[in-house]
TrEMBL record:
The keyword Membrane applies. This is Thromboxane A2 receptor. Residues 57-340 form the G-protein coupled receptors family 1 profile domain. The chain crosses the membrane at residues 46-66, 78-103, 128-149, 170-190, 219-241, 282-302. PANTHER family: G-PROTEIN COUPLED RECEPTOR FAMILY 1 MEMBER (PTHR11866), THROMBOXANE A2 RECEPTOR (PTHR11866:SF33).
Length: 379
């Protein structure tokens, strides 16, 4: 999901006690008039910047992953690279598509001479927008959890990893994730639930505030529950993997030697450096996803649960909280690619050399060291 364009909503309406998408601040003075003009026309400078930054970041990260795939074509990193590429492609598509839909709504509010009015988007357009928000919001979360589980299996059970994590199963898992996200996003298109314009009228999503139908509440709960479960699985899997890596590094060197024998040409230090690189990236992705997505998912869960319990909150306050949580969630697509751009072995090695010049986290393989010693002895 991309950042929603909201800078054009006037301050006077933000303090209003009521809100309607077809009128700006409806009251007795404006109820019988046409849609009034917005006080301040929208400014798109920051929105264009974030869209461009997100697109370029995802494309750069995809290029880095493509280069890594060419290097590790037949190694244990390939399933991870395939899942990571799918994650970045989902982020890129969601960033561009939802951003373009939001921008179209904002431009639609502009009239002649730079005057803007608040209008309600067509129902068909709102359904398309809402389905894209759900699909491109849920897919990266599910892909991130699968990546964490794949690395957990590779680190905790390295001997079983080639048999359990095959490319066929990875592709089938990706198809299952796509099908799950498409099903949840497409149900309102089949009149099971509905998508509605959200404050301030520049994006559409499942209704989570106010009176809700059973279908709307069920879909919102399914979205938030799946997202929170995916984040929980990622945190648990990465924690187990991290503890296993620490154990292998400091207490059980035999584990590394056994995994090295399984990979043939891979030495223990070379394999360990790959594990550290992938675990560092996964940990960063998990932290970014939790920080960006948790407020949005938890707010939906609390809001829908509160409706069933009969709890009523100020509508304007709820709308503002939902919008703020969405803005935070939208940064996930911008920050994800920077994990692969910055947290690579080459970058981490340079950082470690600057911090500790006498130590190196990513050491060369033993075969390389032996050949290097022979060259020194010949001289």
């Amino acid at each position: 999901m991309d950042i929603v364009f909201t800078s054009s909503f006037p301050v006077s309406c933000q303090n209003s006690s009521d809100y309607n998408l077809t009128t700006l601040c409806p009251d007795n003075r404006t109820a019988n008039s046409t849609s009034p003009a917005l006080a301040n026309p929208p400014t798109f400078g920051m929105s264009y910047f974030t869209m461009t930054l997100g697109a370029l970041s995802n494309l750069t990260a995809l290029a880095i992953l493509a280069h890594s795939y060419a290097r590790f074509r037949r190694r244990a990193k390939v399933p991870f690279l395939l899942l990571a590429s799918a994650l970045l492609l989902s982020d890129l598509a969601g960033h561009i598509i939802t951003g373009a839909l939001a921008l179209h709504l904002h431009l639609g509010r502009l009239k002649h001479h730079g005057v803007a009015v608040a209008v309600e988007p067509p129902q068909v357009y709102c359904k398309l927008f809402g389905s894209c928000m759900v699909f491109f919001g849920l897919s990266p979360l599910l892909l991130g959890s699968v990546m964490a589980v794949e690395r957990c299996v590779g680190i905790v059970q390295p001997l079983l990893h080639p048999a359990v994590v095959t490319m066929t199963r990875v592709r089938l898992t990706m198809l299952l994730i796509t099908f799950t996200a498409l099903t949840l996003a497409g149900l309102p298109l089949l009149n099971v639930g509905n998508y509605k314009p959200q404050f301030p009228g520049t994006w559409c999503f499942l209704p989570v505030n106010g009176p809700l139908s059973i279908a709307d509440a069920s879909l919102a709960l399914a979205f938030s529950t799946l997202g929170l479960v995916a984040l929980t699985v990622s945190v648990v899997s990465n924690t187990i993997s991290g503890l296993k890596l620490l154990q292998a590094r400091f207490k059980d060197p035999c584990v590394k030697s056994s995994t090295a024998r399984r990979h043939g040409a891979f030495s223990s230090s070379s394999l360990h450096s790959l594990d550290v690189e992938m675990m560092t990236q996964l940990a960063a992705i998990t932290v970014v996803s939790c920080v960006c997505w948790s407020p949005f998912l938890i707010y939906i869960l609390i809001s829908v649960s509160g409706f069933y319990e009969g709890i009523r909150r100020p509508r304007r306050q709820c709308e503002k909280l939902l919008l703020l949580a969405l803005r935070l969630a939208s940064w996930n697509q911008i920050l994800d690619p920077w994990v692969y751009i910055l947290l690579r072995r080459a970058v981490l090695r340079r950082i470690l050399q600057l911090l500790q010049p006498d130590r190196a986290l990513f050491t060369p393989s033993s075969s390389y060291r032996d050949s290097h010693k022979k060259q020194i002895s010949l001289h």
